[in-house]
Amino acid sequence: MKKIVSIVILSLLLVACGKTEIASLNTVSNIEELNTAIKDAKPGDNIVLANGTYKDFEIKFTGEGTEDKPITLKAETAGKVFIEGESSLEISGDYLEVSGLFFRNGHSPKTNVIAFRTSAKDVANYSKVTNCVILDFNNLERDQDNLWVQFYGKHNELSNCYIAGKTNGGPTVRVDLKGNQSIRNFHKIVNNHFGPRPRKGGARGETIQLGSSFTSMSPSNTTIANNLFEECNGEVEIISSKTNFNIIKNNVFYKSEGSVVTRHGNYVTVDGNYFIGDGVNDQYGGIRIINTGHWVINNLFYKIKGKNFRSPIAIMNGIPKSPLNRYNQVTDVVVAYNTFVDSDSPWQFGVGTNIAQADVLPKSEIRSARPLRTEVVNNVIYNSVGDANPIIEHDKADGVTFKSNIIYNNGVKIENSHGLISKELTLTDIGTDLSVPTSGYDDVEIYNGFDFKTITEDLLGNSRSKSNQIGAIVNSGSVNLDLLDKSKYGTDWYSNVVGAKDPTTYTVANTSELVAKLKAAESGDIIALTDGVFNISESLVVDKTITIQSKGNSEIIFEGAANTPAFSLNPYGKLTLKNIKLKGNGSNYAFASLKENMSNHFGLEVVDSEISNFNYALRVYKQAYSEEITFKNTAISNCENGIELSEETNDRGDYNTEYLTINNCNFDNVKQNVVDYYRGGYDESTIGGNLLITNSTFTNCGAKEKNKRLLNHNGIVNVNINNNTFKNNNVKFVSILWGAKNNVESENTVTNSGQIKTEENLVMTLMY
Amino acid sequence: MKKIVSIVILSLLLVACGKTEIASLNTVSNIEELNTAIKDAKPGDNIVLANGTYKDFEIKFTGEGTEDKPITLKAETAGKVFIEGESSLEISGDYLEVSGLFFRNGHSPKTNVIAFRTSAKDVANYSKVTNCVILDFNNLERDQDNLWVQFYGKHNELSNCYIAGKTNGGPTVRVDLKGNQSIRNFHKIVNNHFGPRPRKGGARGETIQLGSSFTSMSPSNTTIANNLFEECNGEVEIISSKTNFNIIKNNVFYKSEGSVVTRHGNYVTVDGNYFIGDGVNDQYGGIRIINTGHWVINNLFYKIKGKNFRSPIAIMNGIPKSPLNRYNQVTDVVVAYNTFVDSDSPWQFGVGTNIAQADVLPKSEIRSARPLRTEVVNNVIYNSVGDANPIIEHDKADGVTFKSNIIYNNGVKIENSHGLISKELTLTDIGTDLSVPTSGYDDVEIYNGFDFKTITEDLLGNSRSKSNQIGAIVNSGSVNLDLLDKSKYGTDWYSNVVGAKDPTTYTVANTSELVAKLKAAESGDIIALTDGVFNISESLVVDKTITIQSKGNSEIIFEGAANTPAFSLNPYGKLTLKNIKLKGNGSNYAFASLKENMSNHFGLEVVDSEISNFNYALRVYKQAYSEEITFKNTAISNCENGIELSEETNDRGDYNTEYLTINNCNFDNVKQNVVDYYRGGYDESTIGGNLLITNSTFTNCGAKEKNKRLLNHNGIVNVNINNNTFKNNNVKFVSILWGAKNNVESENTVTNSGQIKTEENLVMTLMY
């Protein structure tokens, strides 16, 4: 169907205005029409993509617009044009604009979903993508990295978009600097809403990456401003700046488990941003600083509890004469006019020092170069609950100048204060759930560092020229911010706010009802089993959030084929199993992910249940991932294998779950892989996974374990084995803990089960 | 004596002009007056240093001038104010100008002669040193490094100065980037005459260094323009650019044994410079490129014979993920619109590749990363004598785009042409001793690379907007350059042009005449000995260029004390000894440098002579250096030690002479240190020293040599042992050659003297 509508009125109007160019408005509805329209497009032309769903739609938008007359490619109605299947958008030329598209239910067949180029030589300039959504547009496999938006060329813009749900490897957005056509690019990433990016389980989960170490000498001059980053939990870096002269300004980082990191490159300005935590979650971070010449000014840190790498201000140690892709020394950095409210130990220096590991790491990995010529000045700290250690020196901060910093510490004495000036301060409400100190210290002399005259405004944009004062906010009357009003960010048509929905509970009395209701239920619903036995012969597919529970006398007997699971955990499948007895035939599995095409995360929580007679209690395949896996008050018995999470062996720092929690469980006669949880590849900045085993009993387990360890958690960074009983397990070690990392054990009773050992340094594959 | 003259006329004039400020002109003649004048100086004031000699004069010039009213410190008459002894100049503040001073006969007690700061915090901005001379202002010891001009702060200038003769370690001029107060400095080094800097013998002999590897990420934006570099032979780097965004433009590099090197840092523009050689000396270099984003455009290379590191365009291999202080990969470099006339193999790629040395060097030293995304386009090569290999690939140039390059090769077939277009070209005279092709290729399509529109002018400043063409010069009518008219560079009062002077010959008939005339003679004179014996009891001091000769029947018998030399080679002492029999008493020396305070180089040439009966024929102490040492047609016999040049053991790549030449000599019964010439410290870019031993005979030598080697030349890069006879020398090796470097031997006859061995790789101390 051809449906090209030329709007003559527009040309008439133009003629009426004394102009002679005729701009056309073409509505197209398939790829051929689109390509023709693109081919014919002249400056000022508007190509309209008719409302509808476009499957396997690879757009190459090329053209030469002008500053006054861009060529546009728009959805007929913003948000009503769905790009699905194997689809992508590539743009090259000048002054091109794309708006209103919704990328969903699919993935890109290329390395990018949206690329600002159509070939290595043909890049876009002065072009933008605006008012679009990319949602869950993931590759089928987690290890198959890609990018959702890749910038090339110069002066391009990503604005007012909503982008969320990337689970596969690779930053969500990246700016590419390879080639002179892409340096000094002055790209703008503004007014977007970066919605939740789930924990990825390892590196390569940044939300925005500016360049790479290989282009870390290049001037980028990219601006990231006025965006909302909401639950961007992909990895430790939300924004990874790897080039020079970038500006990160006035963004809101809300409950995001990571930091803004000046990973490579230099002279980045991080100005006037809000880092907002909840006062509890210690994964929410602030700004981590590496390299030279960064200015960190006017930022507000609110209830940020991140530690060490994720502390509000983390200034790292460098590697002397560092290799290009590792850690340059911090020099000539300015941290000024920031305010910290109820954020623990907000200033940490020498972060990442690893001098103690000199024996197991090559010299080129030892971070011993402390910051030089760095100023931490004119900052305000407010602690409702006093903090004895607002400043932590992992290594000496002897190259740092501290001046004119003040603190309210609720009377708690400060160790190692570096001249912090104590003041009685109070909080002033400045908006929804946000109160900060804004006065009470105008008598403190402002430190006037080199070029500080360029800091002309405060966090709120108020002038600092008159009555300047320290801290992020100049005292300037009443303020009423609503930072989390999501209508201020992203598109004008999409919202990720979902209304609360009460779950529906389906009571099922037999297997066929169970199968039918499991299919019919919506995400979040509950399936309640009546008392009795449910014989299942084929795997139950879990592809949404679902709870399956009983009153305590329900039994599911799985009679399915060998090596198939009772519950097949599909993408998006988040299962809670409560109060169920689950029995196998000895050769099949209780729970398993798909072997492939795990294009999104699954989840598993097993409570008050009994799992017995399986080949595997849980088998998670290589590229499958769950943010959390929990077994609680549950017995696992008479299984050949227990909880198997060791197939992600790419040794790139990835692993199969972020949190594995085993609490008050009873393992009996599980012969091998009792708990097998693996992460490979040395990477100092990966902070997971997390293994908690507590209040549990292991008896007669591990007899067939080849390495003679009952609990295998090689490379997992956080391990806590507490208050368990290990009895009559025929192994040599209950566990070998990694002393240099956060691996601990306490109050365990070990009887006839070998020992728990700690090795300080683990010899691992270097990822670099 | 106080001599402050207030010039009221000036103020009257100002008043007459309706201005009310009074600028004063104070003439001062000692440090107290100067300091008072400086202390009292207001914008517009002129402080005048009265003509005369100022010894041990440490000037601290501080003040706050303005753009319209700088504060000046001037010589009463430019060139008549001599700063001598232990003296220095430090400047801090704004808009300060120093002019007309002559630094000579001394050295600085500080680390700089001129520094644009007075303390670590107090730097100069918008200030300049102009119309001054620094001549031979060397530290007393060669290993005592310093700088003659050190830039700090911003917007400072060194202009119209003459600077020459630095022999001690350290670049002549350096720009310091440590600290935010010194970045984006926009300093100017313009219109200067950098006169001869002698070969230093090792590294740390640059004429200008812009930053260091530790600040190689910083934007410098320094301009070096319109300077004459004449015989700047200090080391392989004339200009070592180690920061970003520098501009090196319209300079003349004349007979300078080195290159412009983008050693660290990126995005440097090398535009419109002249590299002029003599068609013979293969030490004169061009531009050596490391790192990212440099533009090398509009340059002319004329009769440059440098090879490899010194080739006209040397594009190096980098080290993958290089350490900060080593070699980053070349990426995104543009080499366009340059012209090469009679310059051998002007384009060399993969320079410095050392994959073959992977066994003896650590991985972090292996230069295996070839250039990427680099364009070599729109260049012209003219060879009067055809060159079969204009392009040399030490490693593959597979990351380089070659387009629109043309060559005239006088009919010689080209190997490996990478698309070079052959043309019949002729040379056009464009000035004194300079002729280049300027036409005959306007039919060749110009390659239009990214941003090439910014190349708006050619070498001569002619517009490229109309009738553009490839090569450095747009064909634009007759041109008459006089690049070597030295009046265009440096001061308006000093010239290094010296008139030719005929040497005076003094004939002396006895020892006292010899002693007297040696003292009285001027540099360049000749002392002729009559036939007969000259008994000398105290060392003859050589502190100028002098020739001592005879008709063949003169004998000098040195009866001086043990371990004292017949000829004491002092700074500046360059001795030619011709046709003399020189005998010692077995315990004293024939020739020796001073043990300390060798503040300038010496020289030694011994021809047609006989040296016998000494403890040492030649002993050169640790910090002494001669550019050349030559023994020709000379016998050295019955000495405990021969030629000793192995005391420079700092292992920083330094050595005691650049060229040691032994031709047609006869060594007999020299017991140890027969030839001992040492260079320590691994450094790929040190190209010396040079040992040539040819047509000579060694008999009964080396008996006491502890390491059982007759010829010791550990670490010397160029060794040629050719056509000699070695007979009955009780050693194990005549020589051990360093195969990986340029060590060769040929046509030697070795009888009962061990062997000559080649070791491919020498294990050396890494300097980094």
From TrEMBL, chains A, B:
<keyword id="KW-0732">Signal</keyword>
<dbReference type="InterPro" id="IPR039513">
    <property type="entry name" value="PL-6"/>
</dbReference>
<dbReference type="InterPro" id="IPR006626">
    <property type="entry name" value="PbH1"/>
</dbReference>
<dbReference type="GO" id="GO:0016829">
    <property type="term" value="F:lyase activity"/>
</dbReference>
<keyword id="KW-0456">Lyase</keyword>
<protein>
    <submittedName>
        <fullName>Poly(Beta-D-mannuronate) lyase</fullName>
    </submittedName>
</protein>
<dbReference type="InterPro" id="IPR011050">
    <property type="entry name" value="Pectin_lyase_fold/virulence"/>
</dbReference>
<dbReference type="InterPro" id="IPR012334">
    <property type="entry name" value="Pectin_lyas_fold"/>
</dbReference>
<dbReference type="Pfam" id="PF14592">
    <property type="entry name" value="Chondroitinas_B"/>
</dbReference>
<feature type="signal peptide">
    <location>
        <begin position="1"/>
        <end position="18"/>
    </location>
</feature>
